[in-house]
Amino acid sequence: MDTKKMDYTILKDEIAIPYELAMGPTWTRFFEGFKQERIYATRCPKCKRVLVPARSYCPRCFVETDEWLEVSQEGTIVCWALTEYEYFAIPIKPPYIGALIKLDGTDTNFLHLVGGIDLSDPEYVRKTIKNGMKVRAVWNPEKKGTIMDIKYFEPMK
Amino acid sequence: MGRPVAIIGVGQTKHGRRFDVSYPELVKEAVDAVFEITGIDPGDIDGVVSGTMPSMMEGVALTHFYFADVLRSVGKPIMKTETCGSTGASLAITGYYWVASGMADLVLVVGSEKMNEGDSQATMTTVLEPFYQRYFIAGAPGIFSMQSQEWSVRFGIPEEKIRAAATKLTIDHHKDAFDNPYAHIKKELTEDEVNNARIITYPVRLWDVCPNSDGACAVIFASEDKVRQMDRKPAWIKGVGYSGEEYWFGDSDKVVWQSAIQASREAYKMAGITNPIEQLDVAEVYNPFTFQELLFYECFGFCDFGKACDETLKGTFARDGKLACDPSGGTLCTNPIGATGLIRVSEAALQVTGQAGDHQIPGAKLALAHAMGGVDQYNAVLILGSEL
Amino acid sequence: MSKDYNTLRHVVRLPHSYAAGPVWTRFYEGLKEEKIYGARCDKCSRIYVPARSFCPNCHENLDEWVEVSQEGEVVSWAYSSDREFFGMQVKPPFIIALIKLDNTDSNFLHFVGGVDFDKSAIEAGQRVRAVWNDEKKGHMMDIKYFEPIG
Ligand SMILES: [Zn+2]
Ligand SMILES: [Zn+2]
To answer: What's the total number of domains in chain A?
Structure first.
């Protein structure tokens, strides 16, 4: 049979599957904190690491972490990537900077956006955004109790 | 340690945009090829291992059931292995375990993906943590860009040098792909073309990134008894290493990358390798991104940390270099994800049995095959050799 | 209990383009002309419908095409009364059925319709005939359903 490409039928479809994901007590409390513009972490009683977002157990020591503390909304950039490409189903439109941010006094890196600067020119971004740079959380006025209640982290003067 | 195990034959499809066949028909091409090449009667296979990256890549869940007929698996045990980008290597390790355990003598292992039928990056976002992380990670390139960005700053590698090394890798691999009849993207690239290509996630540009490929790969694993009954050159599995990390992206170090280091060292130890750059003849490193390929060279001990760019620019890892890396063109030119790791293993098997054709590394006896999966979370390394 | 804590609502959407390949393309083209094609295996003589590229029994490539009958009999069926399945195009009530088209050797999955769902009972062995939609899209739903005859 002739196997020339693209002459054959293509069946188009879009699969949509709805989910309701349970946050459980720890993440419910974490996101309730967001509504008051607070970032909460938990501290591991064994290794003493401060984990943010707050976790119910330490992934290294496997013990419950029930000591809550509010952490700083300032931190430093650990690494970043400027995205220029639009991904299906990602609500944020390019260009944007995804970054790991070490919030002051914590022991894990927090994944979020870096914003508040002109992102249209990659060369400018490259010269401006540096690892180790201090950034501070900027909140959306409207709170939904999700990770996007923080708009982004902006470089501090 | 288990019984000795060898790969006795491999079959691949022509990889690319394969809208000329339905998905089961694509898988059938690879399966039919391996039975034809080996002359093995499908009825003699004891069990089948099948895998894809995440099932919903193709909009059909439980793909191994979808392929039951073409896998010739009716009346046989069938297992699915699914570990994201490392699926292909995990499939090989599953087949290896099955034979090494003594529970089977002949196992058919098949990896496949039809990435062009769905939206591959949309599917991959479903791999990501949904409460905190999915929003910010732009598919695979976002993660790998952050990783290589941190690597460059940590080891003080000038951006220009990384760019030059990455450019050399992509030019070389796309040229090497011409000698691989199954490769997807084959292209003569110029430095200008690569350096000025469209940015995907800065500093990753178009030619630093693998394509979306459709393809399948089928491999037969055999016990020593079966190997001795056949008049075929075996590729012996000398070592396997598989290592994982914590789930949260941001908790563990992805530069001095524990899972990549550990998987390679476990495989080396089992294979008796103490000096990989001297002892290995060829390496099929999983390289969906040029920048990440450089980091893997360092994690696998092919050179010191911070030195991969210098060594690459010197030609150490070129086809005529000290340790040929990805002479097939690698993942950078061909990436049907669920098959990709198994293609790395197959290419290693072809090399150590002298069957790699136009991209054969002369006299290759010991080869490394590798794949990585998840949000930089898992690494698998296999060592294959021409001698038991 | 579960409702004491917050949840995150979310829909995963995944677009797909399934390649039909040459055999199923030809089968779909047949539907546009109100023809149902099967493929016959040289070795075991079975006729598969929809036509397939290979015999799952003998693993022979199939290239003998046969137009098959649009009539057959119900092998088994299930009646779905009110539960709407998310993502399923056809809304209840409906009857799904495996139908053995005359002189074929595989069962064809489709709907049985054209009956009063409240009153009529479908029995295995019931003779049915294909009813076509006026508008053809080269798709399994070009057949509207199979209706009872005789
Ligand atoms: Zn701890
Ligand atoms: Zn047959």
So the answer is: 1
